[in-house]
Amino acid sequence: MTDMRNDISLESDAAVEALLGKASPRLMPPPADAEAVRAAVRTEWQVMTGHRRSRRRFVGFAAAASVLVAGFLTLEMTGTGNIEAVEVAVIDKRIGTVFVLGKNAERLDAAGLTAVDAGQMLVTGEASGVGLVWGTGGSLRLDAATRVEFLAADRIYLRAGRIYFDSGSAAASVASVSGSDARLTIATDFGEVTHVGTQYMVHADGERITVSVREGEVLIDSARGSETAGRNRQMAISGSGAPSIVNIRSWGAAWEWVEAISPNADIDGRPLSEFLEWVSRETGLELRYESADVLSHARRERLVGIIETEPRQALGAWLPATDLGWRIEDGVIYVGKAR
Amino acid sequence: MVPLYLDDKRLVKQVLAGDDSAFDRFFDENFARLYRFAIVRMADDPDAARDVTQIALTKAVRQLHTYRGESALFTWLCAICRNEMSDWLRQAGRRQAHIVLIEDHPEIQAAVDSFRAPPEDSPERQYRRAESMRLIQVALDRLPSNYGDVLEWKYVEGWSVREIASRLGIGTEATQSLIARARRAFADVYSAMMYAMGEDQDARVQR
Does the model's ipTM exceed the 0.85 cut? Predict the structure, then answer.
């Protein structure tokens, strides 16, 4: 018989050192796998710790929150199992690691996924993002480390992270920047967010939700009642205390991730002015023409092609081909004659 | 061993409290070790090992509040991972790999759990040598994460004490002390594994 007990005696340090010296380095997982798994586990952890805190808070103001709690529990109990599998959005752009969770929370690579059905859950990695064309209109974008459950054609649940919705934007054409029937309710642990024709961002971090409005109005239903936030306002709602409201800018670092996954825009045959309005909408920068002549020129000139880059890059790529020039100062795009 | 588990329990408490650095420590100390635990039992399939490890860690995070510190955190994670591997193999329609179990200390049980039967066409002696070398790595993974790391850096990769001290951000004396403790812990774990394996072989011969 074989007796491995007799193979080596480890009574001395020298014996241990000799044994260890025979070994080869331990296998390390591929860095990309480590990154992806870390993102998935971290997201689960953020959701889990967020839920634990929010449940404790619910105990504190159970009476006031009865309506919200009922809705929340219904979601928790039904999960996604009873939701009809209908397509609710089309994936337009993705950056980095994006995956859809299976029923056992296993990661399924979303690289081949072109559309999202009700009942599915998308998760983005640490340096990732995904842009979707919402089924009823508009552009829905998920920032890095975000987890969203798609419940129905007009409803999602933001479990953790940051999303942006532009009810007036679509991938199909820059012509759709005005007017849309996009319907979307964003459920969170702290209330529900709906819009009235707008662009806004919702961030859920387990402690609170923060709603930043770039344009239009957003209605937030929480345990404390309904609140409305308008343009350039940011409202934070947590489980306790009154909502806090501050003024914000519609452009800048907080919005840059939104631009990175802005939808492709078909500008073929469209006037230059519509392209500039699209850039303005996507960046949050105000658009000003230096004269009526310049505006007239922008309305007359037609463009050809499809934009697949970020809006600011598109500005730099397309405007030099026209007779117009531009500069950006203090949140404004100034368009004038090329010098 | 109790202080080690108390340390694990403290870490779990911090993770549950939402401490970001604690989460990173939890992940960094356990992911690679759990991945290695899985891959040797998943026919060396890296994709399967990655998926199973992710599922196990995700479930572990959800159940973290149930961890009592009665076993090492890594042993607790191995138990979850083992269940996930069984499910995965069942769903994949594969025959589960032969697993040798002994009723003993949880750490030894978990370590022996990862042993594989030798391929039928492999010479016994060659297998024993390769398996012994592999078991050194298993023993390193069974140690507290920093113990396994310093031993590997020092004796496998040949780092100097000064280099290890610099990497850990501690003094050279503290590093030497850490290496000495790690060496003793390794000797204990490796010897226990060898003993357990020999007992198991004795039992099989008698059967």
Answer: no
